Amino acid sequence: MKHTPPPTSSSTSKALRMSYRIGRGEQGVLTFEPYKSTILPLWRFRTPTLARKSAQDIWERFEAYDEAGDFVGMDMCRKFLQMGMTRAKRYANHAGGRKYDKDTGEELAKSGTHKGAAEKLEASELFREVWNRCRKHEGYLARKEVFQAELKEWQKTERLKESRPT
Asked: For the region Disordered, what residue ranges are annotated (predicted)?
């Protein structure tokens, strides 16, 4: 399926790109625009069929960001794939997807045998396969290194600007 071209690093300001944090896991996945709004509509995990299509569509978006030289877009795709994996796994382990008791905050026992658990586990594995492909992708790893170096330099420059008297 053809998607509209994703926004690229050339269509976002450097300040915006430099505000992006790779972070742990899925951190920031639902807040960092314009990427959230372009990837979120592709993200579905209710059934293995939807998860397979979703993971494939997000992978295609990942590749489009790679072609555009946009690490932030690539990393956001990685985060959505990881979120698909973890959310589907949560629904496989807990009927209704609720991991913690809403009153006490204590972790609820895993059910694992409820209706739909096997489907959610399969959906989780489909996302895991594509997520691992992203994490090992040569272009992703190279762009991540470049982004981290660029971010370090940007932060250094910004600190110098802030320390200068006005």
From this structure: 93-116
